[in-house]
Each structure stands twice: as structure tokens, then as C-alpha cells.
Design a protein that fits this description.
Length: about 350
């Protein structure tokens, strides 16, 4: 069998299939494409894949998530990446529930999609190797056939005595272990899915449970006597939502809005309830499942630098993504102003 990782692409747009095939083949993958879900299902019965790239909405009237669920049943070790031309919290919610590897909005850059597929395919290969290892282990396990194969009573007594002798040593390590466990728990609590986006060429992430919706730029009504970073309010399906420019909130120069500029609607804790706020970002990247071992605590920058709004630093694919505590990114005065709009 080839050592190359195998990827299945399901998309009803020929241009997307062609581009993904070319991008991924150039990156060393074995690529198989399908335009319809039934065609893709037949391929799953014939071949094994480490990863699959699936369009969220297909032109044959079918939901790409139906195929994702089918793939999970037939090849549970294969990792799925869902892509969508209509990114929103609603369209991302089901992929998250089904624990897909990533959710990537269209249009995407070659480097971006190749990196995500590389990570997903490697994870798929790891899943298969782990399963094969477990299968081999279960086959070679020997079950004792009679009492002579079991430890003697005397042996058990000796084992018990040794355990008791070591108990005192273990107790002296308890305090240190508790400190380490507490630190590990703090990082583990930050593990999960994050919506990632860019600001001034830097990568950031916000916990997916804070995200309510992702929308393109729309008319913003200015509000007098607001800080410069508060751009105004929008009318989102009859609901007035304050909008702020996250670049300017973080002290970065404002930039011209482009076709990739988005408003990410988040829910923040106002102290007396939740408040919906729109955050203008340069572009939305993808939804990532970030593991605890990939997250480091925020480094100390000195007393003059406020880092309370940073949850941690995620080290992924040679880069760093800054994970935000969006509740802390907006201080009490900010929230009071926004509530008054």
C-alpha cells in the first residue's frame, strides 16, 4: 500500500474539485473526487481514506453532513473537513456536533486548505495505526488457563507489603502532584473548538460557544460620542447590535474593509446578563479543535502590559494563535457604553 495519505473530495462545483485536486496532489496526497454524495458513498465502499473534504451544501439537494455521518459509520478513523460558501454559526453548528476535524469557509487560500488537510489526514492515519495496534495487542494477549498461571497467595502478600512500604514515599509527593494537576487542569479547561480569524496578519481564536453568527460587512449606523473603535450599530433581523472594530480596540491601525472582512457576532458577559456584540475582523479562517497539549499559558510581558484578555497561546503547525477571553477583552467601561447604545 502507498505511504501517501489518501483524501476524498466531495463538492458539486467542478472548479473547486479541480483546484483541490491540484493543490492536494502538489502537496503529496492521493486525491479522489466526487460531485455527488451517492458517488462518494460508493467510493467509500471501495477505498480507504485518511481524510475527506466535504461541501456543506450540495446541488443535488443533499446536505453534505449526511455523507459525513455515513463516512463516520463506514470509516470511523477517517477525519472530515467541512467547507462552506455560506459560513454562519448555524451552518457550522452541526459539523461541530458531529466532531468533524475542521470547518473552513470558502473562499480559502491554498496554503490554508493544504495545512488543514495535512493535519486531518495525519490524524486519520494516527487513528488507524492506534486501532491496528489495539487489535494486535488483543490478539496476542494470553489468558491464564489454570491456577498455576496465577500469582501465588504468597506473591500477593509480598506485593501488598511492597505497596505499603511505598505509600509513605508517595504521600510526600502528593503536594507537588496536586500543584501539577491544578496547572494541567487549567490548560485542559481551555481545550476545545475555536473560531480562528486574522487581525493585521496575526491569528486569533475565540471559543466556539461564544460565537453566535458570522456575517459579511453590512451598513453600520454611526452613534455620536462613542469611542473611535465603536463603529456604530447594525440591524440584524430586527435586533440592534453594537459593532466594534477589533483592530482598533487592540490599538492597531484601522484598515480598509475587503470582501473577506467579516462581522463575528459574539455573546459577552455584561455582569447583569449576556450582551450580543459584533466584532469586525480582517477575515475568518476556520474552526479548529485545539488540544490541551497545544496550549501554553500566556507569557509574562511585565506589569505595564495587560494580558488578562488572553486565554493562552496555541502552537499549531509552526505558528501561534492567540486565544482570546472575549469577556475580558471588553472592559467594564466598554460594556457599559455598548449596553447604552
Amino acid at each position: 500500500m502507498s505511504d501517501k495519505l489518501r483524501v476524498l473530495v466531495l463538492d458539486d462545483e467542478e472548479s473547486i474539485r479541480y483546484s483541490l485536486r491540484r493543490f492536494l496532489k502538489d502537496s503529496g496526497f492521493v486525491v479522489t473526487t466526487a460531485s455527488r454524495s451517492e458517488e462518494a458513498k460508493a467510493l467509500v465502499l471501495e477505498k480507504e481514506f485518511e481524510a475527506a473534504v466535504v461541501d456543506r451544501i450540495l446541488s443535488d439537494g443533499q446536505d453534505g453532513m449526511d455523507f459525513v455521518r455515513y463516512l463516520k459509520e463506514r470509516q470511523p478513523d477517517c477525519e472530515s473537513i467541512v467547507i462552506s460558501a455560506f459560513p454562519s454559526f448555524e451552518s457550522a453548528k452541526e459539523p461541530l456536533i458531529c466532531q468533524t476535524f475542521a470547518y473552513v469557509p470558502k473562499p480559502f487560500r491554498k496554503s490554508e486548505i493544504c495545512r488543514v488537510v495535512q493535519e486531518a489526514a495525519r490524524q486519520g492515519a494516527t487513528n488507524k495505526e492506534r486501532k491496528n495496534s489495539e487489535d494486535r495487542s488483543s490478539e496476542t494477549t494470553v489468558t491464564p488457563r489454570n491456577e498455576r498461571d496465577l500469582p501465588s497467595v504468597a506473591g500477593k502478600v509480598e506485593q501488598r507489603r511492597a505497596i505499603e512500604e511505598r505509600a509513605e514515599v508517595v504521600d510526600t509527593m502528593g503536594a507537588a502532584a496536586q500543584v501539577l494537576e491544578s496547572a494541567n487542569r487549567g490548560v485542559a479547561d481551555k481545550e476545545g473548538k475555536y473560531l480562528t480569524f486574522t487581525l493585521a496578519k496575526e491569528d486569533f481564536g475565540i471559543g466556539i460557544l461564544k460565537i453566535k453568527e458570522i456575517i459579511g460587512m453590512m451598513p453600520i449606523t454611526k452613534v455620536p460620542r462613542c469611542p473611535e473603535f465603536v463603529r456604530g450599530v447594525i440591524n440584524l433581523r430586527g435586533r440592534v447590535i453594537p459593532v466594534l472594530d477589533l483592530r482598533m480596540r487592540f490599538g492597531v491601525n484601522a484598515a480598509e474593509y475587503t470582501e473577506r472582512t467579516c462581522i463575528v457576532v459574539v455573546e459577552v458577559d455584561s455582569g447583569s446578563g449576556n450582551l450580543m456584540v459584533g466584532l469586525i475582523v480582517d477575515s475568518v479562517s476556520e474552526v479548529l479543535n485545539i488540544k490541551a497539549e497545544e496550549i501554553e499559558e500566556t507569557p509574562a510581558f511585565g506589569a505595564k502590559v495587560d494580558t488578562d484578555y488572553i486565554l493562552g497561546m496555541a502552537k499549531i503547525s509552526g505558528g501561534v494563535k492567540i486565544l482570546l477571553n472575549i469577556d475580558s477583552a471588553l472592559n467594564v467601561e466598554d460594556i457599559a457604553r455598548l449596553k447604552a447604545l
